[in-house]
Amino acid sequence: MDWIEQLLGFSPDGGDGTTEAMIVFAACVVVGIIIFARVPKARGYVRNLLGLKNRA
Question: What was the pLDDT predicted at 9?
């Protein structure tokens, strides 16, 4: 995982890939939140999983 080094020409994490991993993880979390917020079936699944009541 050295795409930041290739794009920007410097290594903010010393070459170990933690910055790239954090960026990918944050993007996955954001995409997951958007999906669960926009898809009613997924939203219902999460509410049932967490034990929350659906709003009527």
Answer: 82
